[in-house]
Design a protein that fits this description.
With about 300 residues, the chain is an alpha/beta fold. The model has no long low-confidence stretch (mean pLDDT about 95).
Length: about 300
């Protein structure tokens, strides 16, 4: 028997009321629009790249997707202004494992380049760029388009405590499911559109959107602590505490390091002195803001 859209919506609503069922609704991106005249808003960019590998210095971008959106002071996404999607042909064939992961083939990117002037025009007016892995995407974006060096960046994967808000993890699929949504992603811009809805979802823990939490954290400086010459046998302890390893190939110290907020700095230094070095120790420190965080220039 044929069911109308309204009938199906009513059935989904009825199923979602009991705690024994969860209903996932297909994500329908909102249409592009400009904010209402007189409303206080700022412009943000959501960005996603697909690349031939993980090394920003040697691998290449094969796709760039962006969404330009407006947001209010309370972190609500007011609307989507525009979208950007483009392929880039790399200097060598796309590795088979990358094609298997992304679905992007050599034929799809053949003859394509991403126009820098078009990227600059799209980003114009934005006060923040957000990626779902800014530690990866910012390095690639800055290498190709210097305009991204001069804007603030936020990371929707690491600068929101998703597990603390009840989500299974920070992967986009987990976040969509946690918000009662699913999407059939094919391109980088589709993931950006999905992220725009996730960032506007009302968190049951706070009653506010995730974007508000991201913006609050992005505005605060962080300090990078380099635990140079730490004992090798304590590497697992450092890793469990959130330290990451840098192999020194990028000109930065060959060392474990961690990023902490300024309020947690003294506690972290106390941990290093009492548990790692067993003596008074003054490590190398770097203060970062949203304008330098996630960049290969730091």
């Amino acid at each position: 028997m044929f069911q109308s859209a309204s009938d199906l919506a009513a059935m989904a609503e009825a199923l979602s009321r009991p705690t024994d069922y969860r209903v996932l609704r297909r994500l329908v991106p909102r249409p592009t629009s400009m904010p209402a005249s007189g409303r206080e808003t700022k412009i943000g960019i959501l960005l996603d790249t697909e690349t031939t590998g993980l090394d920003h210095a040697t691998h290449e971008i094969i796709e760039l997707g962006m969404v330009k959106f407006d947001y209010a002071p309370d972190g609500r996404v007011v609307g989507v202004r525009d979208t950007f999607s483009a392929f880039n042909e790399p200097s060598a064939p796309i590795p088979p494992e990358v094609t298997a992961l992304t679905g992007i083939t050599d034929d799809m990117v053949a003859g394509h380049t991403i126009d820098e002037a078009a990227v600059n025009a799209f980003v114009d007016g934005a006060v923040i760029t957000i990626a779902h892995n800014s530690g990866f995407d910012r390095k690639f974006a800055e290498r190709y388009w210097p305009v991204f060096e001069g804007v603030a960046w936020g990371c929707s994967a690491t600068e929101i405590d998703w597990r603390g808000h009840g989500f299974a993890g920070a992967q986009l699929g987990y976040l969509l499911n946690g918000a009662g949504l699913f999407h059939q992603a094919h391109r980088a811009v589709d993931d950006c559109l999905a992220l725009s809805e996730i960032l506007d979802f009302t968190l049951p823990t706070t009653g506010a959107p995730p974007l508000a939490a991201l913006l609050e954290k992005a505005r605060k400086p962080t300090v990078r602590i380099w635990a140079e010459q730490s004992p090798f046998e304590l590497k697992d302890s450092l890793k469990r505490r959130g330290y990451r390893w840098n192999d020194g190939s990028d000109g930065r110290p060959k060392s474990w390091y961690v990023d902490v907020c300024e309020s947690a700095l003294e506690a972290e230094l106390a941990f290093l002195r009492s548990e790692v070095y067993l003596r008074d120790f003054e490590p190398r420190l770097q203060t970062m803001t949203a304008f330098t965080r996630f960049s290969s220039r730091v």
